Amino acid sequence: MNEVDLAFTPALELAQLIRRREVSPLELVEIYLERIGQLNPQLGSYFTVTAEAAIADAKAKTELLTTTSELPPFFGVPISIKDLNAVAGVTCTYGNPALINNIANYDDVVVTKIRQAGFIILGKTATSELGSLPYSEPTGFPPARNPWNLEYTPGGSSGGAAAAVAAGLCAIAQGSDGGGSIRGPAACCGLVGLKPSRGRVSKAPVGERLAGIATNGPIARTVADAAALLDAISGYVTGDPYWLPDPETSFLAASQTKPGALRIAFDTSIFPLGEADANSQQGVRETVKLLEQLGHQVEQKSPDFSGLIEPFQIVWQAGVAASGLPVEVLQPLNRWLFARTGSVAEYLQGVAQMQVVARQIVAFFDSVDVLLLPVYLHSPIRVGEWANLSPEETFQNIVQWVAPCPPANATGQPAIAIPVGFDSKGLPISVQIIGKPAAEATLISLAAQIEAAKPWIGHRPAFAISA
């Protein structure tokens, strides 16, 4: 297997190659670091590359291979961490240049669990400022670009993570999702992006300040990789404000289990924001046909999401003010969101209203197993496309674009994005599947069934293989 093939090999397969001593952790790290050096200047997927630490870890793990066979599941596999999460000894900028010298003195628990699973961390990936925007172009940093077409965004806020995986600059990535920030970038870049249920993945040791809408999760090449990474990072940590019991069987096992006949609802519009564009509709309708062929019961219907827009915005903009950064160091849209933040009473009223609407949305799932929607209402935007708009205009464009994603954040339900084709610009088309609360296993089984019926793994961006 040549170096390009290795760079695009799924993480679980790389782990098996390492176990069989067909490739070493050091060889893999050197391959990915070389690719990062070649492609990242154009791609902007990494803010920080921890080459020295990655090589040292890879050498130690390569040496350990000669002395033990008791290895964690992802031993020696290279991964990236989003630059909203703390990695001890590494800069954590949150997408703001004022924090360029902010060196974390601890690991977030999700990072600790990633290390325990045997991964080697290559660096910190690009994010929008504070993770608040669905494109990754923060002031003071190169914009992250889509490896399928460099003129377009890889999405946000986990845009760097998705661009890195899609371009073969890491085997798999950690991302986070507070309003579509895993699913959107996965869709833009033709990857699997899984937002877990609320309480599935701990946010320790930091506190929760977004009313439970945000969570960490995987961005991967395959459903099995995403499932196995979710296995690795899941679990209660003492003091978590939300938690779920461990599943009876692993999520990886769910990816290898047929889902049976499911009751599936679908829609191509989000009331009251309107219909998805032709590309997004195409992805949903072609997937509906496939699901019917696979024996599922499919019906066009969806919940009423209209009552969610205002309270979700109240919670979202409060997160910017809660960052603790002075307003003068924020970029214009986040300054505007900061200025719109109301009183504590208004915030708590918004949370309560969001929870009431969330109950109504979850009740919709009493009669269906999953809901199929577009990931976004239209195709990816160009890099800088909204740069000259006012903050208010930009925000309205964002609401219109990402509308299918926030409902699952408000309800805490699991949701997965999977690629199903390409549009006329050569950009991926994806669909989103939302499941019942805590039912990641059903989503994973169904997504794996779609993946098997419509394989994607052979597709690679020309940009990423021409070097």
Give structural notes.
- The chain is built from 17 helices and 13 strands.
- It is an alpha/beta fold and 467 residues long.
- It has one domain: Amidase signature (AS) enzymes.
- The strands form 2 sheets. It has an 11-stranded mixed beta sheet, sandwiched between helices. Strands 8-9 form a two-stranded antiparallel ribbon.
- The relative contact order is 0.13.
What proportion of the residues form beta strands (DSSP E)?
5-15%
Q: What is the name of the CATH class?
A: Alpha Beta
CATH topology: Amidase signature (AS) enzymes
Average of pLDDT: 97
Please give the domain count: 1
Please mark out the parts with pLDDT under 50 across 5 or more consecutive residues, or reply none. Answer: none
CATH homologous superfamily assignment: Amidase signature (AS) domain
The major β-sheet equals:
11 strands, mixed
Q: Any idea what the CATH architecture is?
A: Alpha-Beta Complex
The rounded Rg comes to: 20 Å
Helix content: 25-40%
What series of H and E elements makes up the topology?
A: HHHEHEHEHEHEEHHEEEHEHHHEHHEEHH
Name the overall outline.
globular
Termini Cα gap:
17 Å
Strand count: 13
- Strands ordered across the widest β-sheet: 1-3-2-4-6-5-12-13-11-7-10
Brief rundown of the structure:
With 467 residues, the protein is α/β, with parallel strands linked by helices. Helices cover 39% and strands 14% of the residues.
Any key phrases for this structure?
467 residues; alpha/beta; Amidase signature (AS) enzymes; two-stranded antiparallel ribbon; 17 helices; 14% strand
Topology:
Layout: H1 3-7, H2 11-19, H3 25-43, E1 46-49, H4 51-64, E2 78-82, H5 109-116, E3 120-125, H6 159-166, E4 172-177, H7 183-189, E5 192-195, E6 215-220, H8 223-233, H9 251-254, E7 263-266, E8 269-270, E9 274-275, H10 278-293, E10 297-300, H11 309-321, H12 332-340, H13 344-364, E11 370-374, H14 391-402, H15 406-411, E12 415-422, E13 428-435, H16 440-453, H17 462-465
Parallel strand pairs: 2-3, 2-4, 7-10, 7-11
Antiparallel strand pairs: 1-3, 4-6, 5-6, 5-12, 8-9, 11-13, 12-13
